[in-house]
Predict the 3D structure of the following.
Amino acid sequence: MDTRLTALRKENVVETTVQIQREIEELGRMTVRQLRQKYIEVFGEESRSNHKQFLFRRIAWRIQANAWGGLSERARRRALEIANDADLRIRAPKNLFGGDTHLDPRRCVTRKVAGEHDARLPPPGSYLEREYKGQRLIVKVLTTGFEFEGRVYRSLSAIAREVTGTKWNGFLFFNCAAAAEVPNGKK
C-alpha cells in the first residue's frame, strides 16, 4: 500500500481538518438542547446526560472518528477483552452471606454508643479544685458533665465562664491540660 501523500490527497486532508475544526467550534457555541440534538444525529441514539462538556467531548470525538476512522479492529477486540475480564461489582450483594436482606435486630445499634472518657479528666466521682481570687472552687466530675454549686454544666469552660465572666478553656482553667500528653513530648 502506498503511504505517500499526493498533492490532491494532502489537499483533501487539509480540507477535512479545517471542516472538522469548524464543526467542533460550532459545538462550543451550542446550548445543551442543541448538543443533545446533535448527539442523536451523530450517535443515532439519545444521550442520558445533560452535562454540556461531556456532550461536547463525545460529539467532537465521534466527528473526528467518522472523518479519520475510529479505533482499529484490533484495538476494539482488546477493549472488549478488558471489559469482559473486568469485575464490575463495587459492593457485595446484601444477601451474599445468606440470610434475609432485612437487618438482624440483635446486631443493630438502638442507642448512642458512649464515647471514651476524656484522658485529661479524672474518673467520674472525682473532684477538681481551684482557687480563684480568694474563692475556693470545687467541681465534681460526672459521667455526663460537671456539678458546680448544685448546678450541672456540660463543660468545664461553662463553669470557668460563670466564675470569671470571660471565656476560658476549662481544661486550662482547672489545670487539667497538664496531665494530658503534650505534642512532640515537649512541655
